[in-house]
Amino acid sequence: MQEQPDDHRLTQARITPRLIESLYTEAMVLADEARTYFDEAGREERGTLDPFVRVGFACESLKVTTRIMHIVAWLLTQRAVETGEIQPGSIRRPERRLGHAADSDPEVVSQLPPSAQRLVNASTDLYARVKRLDEDGFEEAAVPSPARALMGRLERDLLWPKGE
């Protein structure tokens, strides 16, 4: 009978430089979309909303921005660990963990224009994915594979060459 892999190893997310870069790119694109929408295109839509919904629109725009900034800060911390600027053990400190972001009220979000709803939902989804990585990254690690360690070092050197 073949030995089954430890369930923990299957669920544990592998935080690699490539994953960090991919999430960072996604967060920055989302940040740019949110800024453009809430500062420009959303102003016109906001003006057509009822006063109560307008307040919800403003609150949700702040929540979107807060989520994205927490995500970017966390990803930059992960990048600093990968480049050796921060000791890996120090990422357990509370200030290096993903910051708390308030949940959106589905009832409020449902009253927003479709573009605002998309941004709220995209930021919520990205925050949830990064939160899982943050939480899983501090669980008891599985026995490291020498092959994975070598692949991680090669990937780090390709993405972040020394001297850049």
- CATH C-level name: Mainly Alpha
- What portion of residues is helical? 55-70%
Helix/strand/pairing category: mainly alpha
- How many domains is the backbone divided into? 1
Question: What do we call the CATH topology?
Answer: Helicase, Ruva Protein, domain 3
Q: For the CA atoms, what is the radius of gyration?
A: 19 Å
Classify the beta-strand content into a percent band: under 5%
Distance between the termini: 50 Å
Q: Would you identify the CATH H-level superfamily?
A: Protein of unknown function DUF1465
InterPro entries: AraC-like_sf, DUF1465
Region (Disordered): 87-110
Biased composition (Basic and acidic residues): 92-103
Organism: uncultured Sphingomonas sp
Overview of this structure, please?
It contains 6 helices and no strands. With 164 residues, it is mostly helical. The chain has one domain: Protein of unknown function DUF1465 (Helicase, Ruva Protein, domain 3, Orthogonal Bundle), CATH 1.10.8. Helix 2 packs antiparallel against helix 5 and helix 3 packs parallel to helix 5.
